[in-house]
Amino acid sequence: MNLGTRKILDRSFTAVGIGSIVLMALALMVVVVPIVSNGVGAMFFTGTVEHRKMLQSEFKRGEPRELAGEVAAAERYRARVYEMLAGFEAEMERMKPEQKAEYEEKYSPVRKTLQELLGPLPGDPAPMLTRFKYGQTRWEKAEERLHDLLYETKWDTSNPDVMSKEYFVSQATGFEGTSLAQLFPYVEKNIRKILLPKFTIYWGFLTDSSVDSHFFGGIWPEIQGTFFLAIGAMLFAFPLGVIAAIYFTEYAKPGFFNSMLRSANSTLAGVPSIVFGMFGLAFFINTLKVSESKSVIAGALTLAIMILPTIIRAAEEAILAVPKTYREASLGLGSTKWNTIATVILPAALPGILTGGVISLGRAAGETAPIIFTAAVSVGSAIGLADVFSSPTPALSWNIYNLASEHEAAAQIRHVQYGMVLALVSIVLLLNLSAIVLRARISKKLKG
Amino acid sequence: MLCVTGNYHENTSFMTEGSAGGNRTNAFVVTSRKRAMQKVSKMAGEGILLGVASFVAVVVLFIFYFVARDAVPFFQIRGFSEFFTSSKWYPADTPGEFGALAIIYGSLMVTLGATLLAVPMGVAAAICLSDILPFSVRQYAKPVIEMLAAIPSVAFGFFALVVMAPLLQNNGGPILMWLWLLLVSPFLFLAVIVGSDLLTTNIADQKRRRQLNLLFMVLFGILSVAFLYQVATILFAIQILTGTNALNVSIILSFMALPTIVSVSEDALQAVGRDLREGSYALGATRAETIIKTILPAASSGILAAVILGVMRALGETMVVWMASGNASHIPSPWFNYLESIRTLTATIAGDMGEADQVTGSARFHVLFAMGLLLLVISFICNFISERIVVRQRKILSGQ
């Protein structure tokens, strides 16, 4: 090979290496950016008067008198809509039967969309579910509904070779010549006055419990459940892990038995997370019967077993990183081995051990598979501290899955799902970030 | 005060008996009883430590025992052959059919896909971290990798389901084309340059050699552009019927396996040591040649261990495959079609347990534990192999 080619190869090799790091950073960005940008929308959004009505009647929040004024202002514009609907219904009564049937078929989706947009129309029976008591609470959703109201969606299937294409037909043309034709331009023109959109900051998303399976309200039960599970797991795993690490670093002598213990540790680290869930079900619930069925305690124990190897490894590394001179100085002063460990080595290794603990806490908070069969429940209110031994809890990780995949109206509550994912990701990443900062400080201190 | 502590027994024991006879109790004195107590408490303490440390081993045994205990009834009822050879999975029927071949195949398929995507990238990134980037940049690159490792699997699953799947479904062809062009064309052009150089390397006449080199380069260049274009047009025309497919899951799983692969293979590369690197540089090798011809062979077993750990991560992952693989229990046709929905072992366990749980004792419940046992055994074997490899490499490197 000539020198030029060798140089090109060398350069491109470097480029491939750096490119792959950049690709990893990009992968991180590609995943995190949509989660953050959409997740923020759960708390900061343009809310309509319906949102403020909902807050007032479900959570008793907001200024009642101010709200009453707003509602009255909106009703002034809505009254005209209701009038037009009533007028058209009367007009349909006067039509010939076949013409009436034709218009009724077209009219009922319009009426339904208006219900979704504005809430129950005058004359409707009081809805059973909370989700039907209010119109669209978020402006971007209201705009979607408005589009549904103004245009009919049709599919172009004329060419069988390619996928059918979507196209829109104005609804108003379908009602040409009737009194309802005016409704569409009227709603389009006055939608802002009907719904009164206003920039809203809804901190309650983090502290409220959910209303009508997450259609409204917040995610407090899930956040609390996640904390219970993660902290419960730490309570079991942290002391055990640190003690085991002390044994491995200070007392274990090389030999068959101890190398078996070590490989048991790495085996445990490699067990698939869903298998932990099965074990939790088969052992903690079906055999030990720590609780009747799913419970926080069973989930916390399962998570504890899962994070134990990580804690042991981190604590071992932290203890081994304590300079030998500390140990020798302490023993030289006549202290016993145990005394040295308790008063010299552990305090020196503590920041490192805590770093490992914090990372494991994040892992326990984010893990889903082990709690599916042991602790997680899809709907439920926040549980008290006394209930952890008997009742299951909603948790962020499980409810993200549940809302995104199994909820009956998953597409309508995307903002809640994104908000939950953002909450979970930021809990975990903040824990990890603090661990990284902590470790950077330690390494500086050990160097200096 | 020193006499109370265990290390000084021998020095102080001469005064124990004498002083004990007096009325005055002396804090400095160690009685034989105290000494025995200390010995016992020391033994007890070490025993407790040992007990806690062996707790992990007990847990591993328990996991094997309890998963196997519920898996065995399935094989007793249905035997082995149906589970491993049939791909008819109708557990809800009476009598149910429990052929898991398609499910096992689905697991292997996404694992292979994720490994193929993650290993080249992960090893390249590890090389970059250990040998190419200066230390100051490395400090910022490492947290990126740790962050990627920290993101919960359900967040990745949500991303795959809500962002990735619609994207693949609506713009599948163009995405595949751009991926092809961006990832493959640099390597193809590099191969053209190197190949034409290698073909002309034996020609002695400088001028002729340069001319021929240029000729080959143009020729191969045109050929490779034509090839790229042909494949790109084929890819562009592809329409992906469902976004929740094996490709989607493989891509996301490769993101999740990357951090493991990078950090373990970086450790392996670091362990190779300076002397080999410096020896290679001294012989006139460039950095790329040093890494490819010297360091990678020396670290190959460690990198293999990293790959195995990455494979385990992808195989054992639940949430992403459950949410975004489509959960269709069939073997795609043709068998390498990554654009079809599949179903994996982990997702089946997670998804079916809820329904099977109510009828504890039926084959439907036990078949899930059979799947769990299969996963457990595979991960145990992988772990065992990777650990052996790491130990052996450490021995070889320290032996030199």
Describe the structure.
The complex is a heterodimer of chains A (448) and B (400). Chain A is mainly alpha-helical. Helix content of chain A is 67%, strand content 5%. Chain A folds into two domains: 49-174 and 182-200, no CATH class; 220-447, MetI-like (MetI-like fold, Orthogonal Bundle). In chain A, the strands form three sheets. Chain A has a two-stranded antiparallel sheet. Chain A has a two-stranded antiparallel sheet with strand order 2-3. The radius of gyration of chain A is 31 Å and the shape is elongated. Chain B has two domains: 2-78, no CATH class; 102-360 and 387-399, MetI-like (MetI-like fold), CATH 1.10.3720.10. Chain B is built from 14 helices and two strands; from the N terminus they run H-H-H-H-E-E-H-H-H-H-H-H-H-H-H-H. In chain B, strands 1-2 form a two-stranded antiparallel sheet. Chain B is flat and about 95 Å long. Chain B starts with 8 loop residues before the first helix and ends with a helix. Mean pLDDT of chain B is 85; it is low at 1-23. Chains A and B meet through helix 1, helix 8, helix 9, helix 10 and helix 11 of A and helix 3, helix 5, helix 6, helix 7 and helix 9 of B.
